[in-house]
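Slide 14.
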Amino acid sequence: MSDTDRFNLPDSPERQGHRTSPLEGCWRPVRPWRGRATPATPANPARNATIDLFRVIAIFGVIVVHTDPVTRKVFTSAPEHLANLMITGAGRLAVPFFFVASGYFFGGKVREGAPPLPLFARYAKRLLRIWVLWSLIYLLIPLRLGQWQHQGWWQAVVEQLRNMAAHPLLIVFVGGKGHLWFLMALVMALAIAAICEKLRARRLFYALGIALYVYGLLTGLYANTAAGFSVPFDPRNGPVMSALLVACGYWIAGCHGRVDPVAAFAVMAIGLIGFEAELHWVPMLSSAWPPIIDYGVFTPVFGIGALLFGVAVPHLGGRWWPRVGAECVLGIYVCHELFVEPPWMLHAWFHNYAWEFLFPVIVFVLALGLTMLLARERHLRWLVR
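Slide 15: predicted structure.
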């Protein structure tokens, strides 16, 4: 979910050493996968339809986590709690995939010769613009309808401002709404990558990413185990967890070997199964429920496998869905909370499984529609691109 409009541009003719095609630089229709191994860094990286398709799946996973199907607040049996944990657990692998994909495309541009700091400045300018604009929107539009009814609009806004003032670090690391933490975490991880690249200290970037991630695990999912410890802030925010995931994609961008799609799919499956097992067993071995459960040991494994599979099989997804992934995912991410919190009470009103799984689909469709509408207006497209 980074610079999706300019992520996957082709090499220049000088670097490619061959005549350019009229289709180069454009999003192109896909061809069926024939199961052949593919270089990790293809010579002509036109839009990767599979990675764009994975972006769509990932943004739906984010919505699933935020809509919380079979929510514990309504469904109380042990099997229902397990189902909720497994469903939302799969969705929690979405944001890590965004980090890995962002690192892959950023690293690819750097290795093609783009100066790291100016390149980072372009990424940061776009991401921070969207972060600031949507922080203001969410501050000025309180989504808890009860606040509007009992306090009025202005008092609800003032209360939100007071809550932010009471936690100043959240203003920097999160912004005006909880899910916007991703944008700032991505900017910080890319900043570390750019600085290390400028200093010619790429190995330092990898080592720092590993150290921060281990620290995040011990203060997050594993905080209440014998090896973990507690800290007074959320280790999910900032570059603590994002740096390693961006570094994984950055590293893959420099690999020139051939990727076996079966092996890549196996790595992805191991990451998914391993993370689900962590979510099930680690809380049982902990003295209390972990402060965050968004990342585990197997999270980077899944991200690496998913990206490698996308590189190995670049033509899945047909024509329309990959284009949504290329152009709309960032907009869906920032605006979807507009459609999550206001109807939340419907969980208790409907209290059935059909609603639990229909709700995220409705949110996805509404967020996609709003993103497309905003993208069509010249003065509003800055909100989603």
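Speaker note: The longest helix spans residues 116-140.
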